[in-house]
Amino acid sequence: MRTVKIFQVDAFTDQKFKGNPAGVVPEADMLADQEMQEIARELNNSETAFLLKGNDLEYDLHIRYFTPTAEVPVCGHATIAAIYVHALQHALPSCELRVKAQVGILPVAIHELQGDYEVVMEQAPPVFEEPLDRLITEAIIDALGIKRQSLAADSPIQIVSTGHSKVLIPVNEERKINELKPDLGELSRLSKEINCNGYFVFCITKMSPEYVTYGRMFAPAIGIAEDPVTGNANGPLGHHHLVKPDGATFQFTATQGNAMQRPGSMKVIVDIQDGKPSKIKIKGTAVIVFSTAIKLD
């Protein structure tokens, strides 16, 4: 009989029942792949993170991520949640860890704040694909329920990936994002056609002293009807042409989850070299909602 400790954590918030919930299993080396998938399905969060021992020469921790239906390469909010739990369990001082995921080894910084923590995750460099063709673009916006006149001017709809791809769909008003009533079945069908599971609808407004973004993310093809606050969707906005960075470091606040009554936010930190974004980090807080243990044969 094995006992498995599990945490339920709300990420990108410091309030319970807000932000994005993630399961965290801190000592998962004893688990088989199928057991990880079954635990993720039972918890039914958008993602559950399983922490495995590191290799001292290369990385400090290895994290695997499962939705209720599939393993995925990386997940922003589940990383924030997992490292938050790890820091609390080990009473870590401010430090930087090397975290292995399917996308590679990513630096993750822990900032200790009087017994609590902020976590800063560096993302893999985003890859922007060519804009989707007209027929696919029209099929996507029809499935999302977006009117043509609601799209942001001169902004193509395209797939971007930091290891886990999303379709970025820029629109011109927050109100129109909240009114979306997507056809989840059609989005799932389109995911197979374009080989991309997530659809991130967003807008950007310039609010002094910084940019603020707002979005909603749908990924029904991998069992996520809607995701409350999505690190792998908001981070690439630091490279988007609608954001105009200046100086050596640029940051903005990414907000999401209002339509689900789970508002949350993160800081997106952009390092600039030669006038162009060179490195993207996302910074967030978290809060443990509960912990429990299950016994496995």
From TrEMBL:
It comes from Fulvivirga marina. The keyword Cytoplasm does not apply. NCBIfam families: PhzF_family, PRK10281.1. This is PhzF family isomerase. The active site is at residue 47. GO terms for cellular component: cytoplasm. Keywords: Isomerase. InterPro entries: Phenazine_PhzF-like. PANTHER family: BIOSYNTHESIS PROTEIN, PUTATIVE-RELATED, PHENAZINE BIOSYNTHESIS PROTEIN. Pfam families: PhzC-PhzF. Belongs to the PhzF family. One of its GO terms (molecular function) is isomerase activity. It comes from the Bacteria.
